[in-house]
Amino acid sequence: MTDSQWEVLSNQGVTIAGVVYFLALLSHLIEWAGLRKVPHTEEVHTGKVALFGRLGLLLTMIAALAHFVALVGRGMAADPNRVPWGNMYEFVISSTFFVTLIYLVVYKKFKLSWMAPLVVGFVLSVLMVAVVWLHSPVAPLTEALLSPWLVIHVVSAVIATAAFSLGGILVILHLVKDRREKKGGPAPLYGYLARVPSTAVLDRLAYRMHAFAFPVWTFAVLITGPIWAHEAWSRYWNWDPKEVWAFITWVVYAAYLHARSTAGMRGRTASILAIIGLLTLWFNFIGINFFSTTSQHSYAEGAAVVEVIPVEQTVDPTA
Among residues of the chain, what percentage have pLDDT more than 70? Predict the structure, then answer.
């Protein structure tokens, strides 16, 4: 296949993934619509309700496969072939793929069927944003990006971002359910929130997800990032806006995990701290590209930026 054919395959893969994600979301919404008037104490996952749940999971797996094909096609479309992490569009579609992948991997272990509409809806929404506003043609990387550290640094950042995003969904659910329970008193919950685990379970799952993501983020930000920066710019730290915000994100999540494990911080306070971390994370990866004019990591314009920035101000695709 030619490079242009690989690029077409990648675009088609993203389109197919988006369509199938939408069908998966629709299946899960139908499933949960059937549960909206049934108390959580009743066993209702039978018949049509269970069928739509299984169909939604199957469609999510198919969408993830198409999503993976899109990533492979994107990398193969470049000359020379490379990992698909050369600009903001590629980073976002990679991050969303890992959100789905991590969710599917832990789906059975943690019994996360109740997360399905939120995870699929999140992935679909971010994927649509990437296609509509962030898409750029495939382009070769500049010299400083042609390094094995591209794979090591960026893949760790992508995995951590995906895990932090899933943790963010969990803490938001924790806040919503906690507020609903306090507002509703002893009355039984119905519908979606009735199937969501208790606030204690949500808090514990969120902690586990963040505890997994944090060391991966540490590896990306404090180890491989500085090493690659030194290789590209002969300096380990440049006070670049993205470097600063990545460190701020690290500090916020470190505070969350430290308080959660040593001070016994639970519930609403811990969830709010985790959400602050999520906001700094996504502002770093997306906001800096649009609001900063000094960042050496900025690639908000995708391939066009990669082509014109000199080597000493090379783009770093970890955003």
Answer: 84
